[in-house]
Design goal:
Layout lengths: L24 H18 L9 H14 L14 H13 L8 H13 L4 H18 L1 H7 L5 H21 L2 H15 L5 H22 L9 H31 L8 H8 L1 H11 L10 H6 L2 H15 L3 H21 L16 H23 L3 H19 L8 H20 L9 H31 L12 E2 L1 H16 L10 E3 L4 H7 L19 E5 L7 H4 L3 E11 L8 H10 L7 E10 L1
């Protein structure tokens, strides 16, 4: 299936695509997948200790909800999440479950919005894309995680889909929906600038390539004249779309005009300055190839489907097949023999440190741009767009100075669409329908590979999201709050109850040090729990402080209190000397082969 999107090609459409069209088994399969996605995202949602960041965002949303106000702070990203969480707390109350409802909701909404790609990829295509988005371990994990990334992924996806529909149909409602989605994307997190850059540069490249490289007939004539005609036809709709973008942005960043300075702070004064500085100092540093292991540990079926699909598409002749195979095999050989070697120091400006980084970058650029040009020539604009987004998004996030697992969600999003697109084309190959022995053999091989990939995806998804959600053995789990904290909070509640103390009115515990987060969330209703000063005069029945400080207070707590060592946060850094068998056991079962690390606190209970 080919589709083309140009500035002048307008497909008449008086009505928007309706969900309430004739129902067939593919439509039922799609909406059944959406329902299953909702179940997977909301099931057992509260059964994981809140991560440090989750507790931070949860507390500030709770403060906003209880009337303590909110002002935009770039350290906590954009304002939309804080405003939307007011509605969630109002409807469902404040708790460990409700604090994660919104990201799960937007994760479900993103999968449902795939329906609007039906005119581009067909019903089989939207079913396959929905399946990949539903069962992707990464997508599911961060749809169940109180951070901005689930919101940003949805608004990015929605703005792209409605933008594509507008260019194809010229229906103004699509333009307004795309503008609103873009504005909300910018009101959520600063990586929106990355996504906007990808969208704009793709559009420019598309127009340039199709006008000056492939010289399509509809591009003949003055390019400026074509844009002028487009502006004259659409200017009022574009102006209104600009107003929609502006007013959403203004209302949220100023917190409905209670913080007028928030507009410029969000536009550039604080947001870009703060995060550009974080990028320069590499506050959370990681290697350029930081995200590569995530493809193999969590998203191998999607990764192989995308890579295989691109290689099959561009290798349509013998010469092209030889070049594609040579580039792939030669890159692999270079990585094996030279990948671990250091690059010259002047490469530091690119954040690349070893030859592996450079080889991966060159391969992605070569194959990615080759595929994009091929899709442009074939008028398969959708495939070109998501190929460009996948390649450039991966390279930009690899270069960025902050490396954290949740950003991998944004690298993966366009690849899920590509995987569904290529798998749809795979099923449509005539060779699979032939009666010959070869065709039958290929069908059996494809079925076996498909079953193996499905089982691996399900195994990894279930393991990460329902068994190892807080297990530091998972690379997706980033310095996670230990399950011991949940047990400690239960003890705090039991002690308060047994002593007959109303913890909302009378201080029952003193907390200081690293444990303040996430305990701020769990003790949000406790009176005077935070105790930053000297603990020698403390008379409270329970105390929590950093493990390293217990020696300072040994004379205070040694006799009258029971001392319990509690793991606060845990992590695992793999030992590079692991054997092949150990790595295999880790790959399949997440069995670690060297000790995990932790940051601990001491929990004192008065005898």
């Amino acid at each position: 299936m080919k589709e083309e999107i140009t500035l002048q090609k307008k497909i008449p459409s008086r009505t928007l695509p309706s969900v309430f069209q004739r129902i067939d088994w593919l439509t039922l399969a799609f909406w059944g997948t959406v329902i299953l996605a909702c179940f997977l995202r909301f099931y057992d949602l509260a059964n994981m200790p809140l991560h440090h960041d989750e507790s931070l965002y949860g507390v500030y949303c709770w403060r906003f909800f209880t009337g303590q106000g909110y002002q935009y702070d770039p350290m906590m990203h954009g304002p939309f999440m804080f405003h939307f969480q007011l509605l969630i707390f109002f409807l469902f109350g404040v708790g460990d479950f409700s604090v994660r409802i919104a990201p799960a909701f937007f994760g479900c909404l993103m999968i449902a919005s795939t329906y609007y790609l039906k005119d581009f990829v067909g019903k089989i295509g939207i079913v396959l894309i929905a399946i990949f988005l539903t069962f992707s371990p990464t997508n599911l994990y961060f749809n169940r995680f109180m951070r901005h990334d689930s919101y940003v992924a949805f608004f990015t996806y929605a703005s792209a889909i409605f933008g594509l529909l507008y260019v194809r149909y010229r229906h103004k409602m699509y333009l307004y929906l795309s503008a609103a989605s873009l504005s909300l994307m910018f009101c959520e997190k600063e990586n929106s600038y990355i996504h906007a850059f990808i969208f704009v540069t793709f559009f420019v490249l598309k127009e340039f390539c199709q006008a000056f490289i492939f010289r399509f007939p509809e591009y003949r004539g003055n390019l400026g004249k074509r844009f002028n005609i487009f502006w004259q036809e659409q200017k009022y709709s574009l102006i209104l779309a600009g107003f929609i973008f502006f007013w959403i942005y203004l209302l949220l960043y100023t917190t409905f005009f209670t913080n007028p300075g928030g507009f410029l702070d969000g536009l550039y004064r604080k947001s870009l300055v703060y995060w550009w500085n974080q990028h320069k100092i590499q506050r959370i540093k990681g290697p350029f190839h930081y995200y590569v292991p995530f493809f193999f540990l969590y998203e191998l079926p999607i990764f192989l489907t995308v890579l295989g699909g691109i290689l099959v598409k561009i290798a349509r002749t013998l010469n092209r097949a030889i070049v594609a195979a040579w580039a792939t095999i030669f890159s692999g050989i270079l990585i094996i023999f030279y990948g671990h070697r250091d690059l010259p120091l002047w490469f530091a400006v690119t954040h690349m440190e070893i030859w592996l980084d450079l080889i991966i970058t060159l391969y992605v650029l070569f194959i990615g741009f080759w595929a994009m040009l091929y899709f442009f020539k074939q008028r398969e604009t959708l495939a070109a767009f998501f190929t460009y987004w996948s390649a450039i998004g991966f390279l930009i996030y690899s270069y960025a100075g902050e490396k954290v697992p949740w950003l991998f969600l944004h690298i993966l999003l366009p690849m899920c669409v590509l995987a569904g697109l290529f798998l749809r084309d795979f099923f449509n190959f005539p060779v699979w329908k032939g009666p010959s022995v070869l065709c039958k053999g290929l069908r059996y091989v494809a079925i076996v590979i498909g079953i193996m990939g499905t089982l691996y995806l399900l195994h990894t998804t279930i393991l990460l999201n329902y068994y190892n959600r807080a297990n530091p053995a998972e690379r997706m789990v980033y310095t996670q709050t230990s399950n011991d904290i949940i047990k400690m909070v239960k003890v705090i509640e039991d002690v308060s109850f047994s002593l007959g103390i109303d913890a909302k009115r009378e201080p029952v515990i003193a907390v200081q040090g690293n444990a303040v987060w996430p305990l701020h969330w769990y003790l949000r209703d406790y009176a005077g729990w935070y105790y930053p000063g000297d603990l020698r005069g403390n008379q409270r029945p329970m105390v929590v402080m950093d493990w390293e400080k217990r020696e300072e207070y040994n004379d205070v707590f040694a006799n009258g209190y029971q001392e319990i060592r509690v793991r606060l946060r845990e992590w695992w850094i793999p030992d590079s000397t692991g054997t092949l068998r150990q790595w295999w056991r880790y790959f399949v079962y997440r069995e670690v082969f060297n000790p995990t690390g932790s940051s601990d606190v001491v929990f004192y209970i008065k005898r």
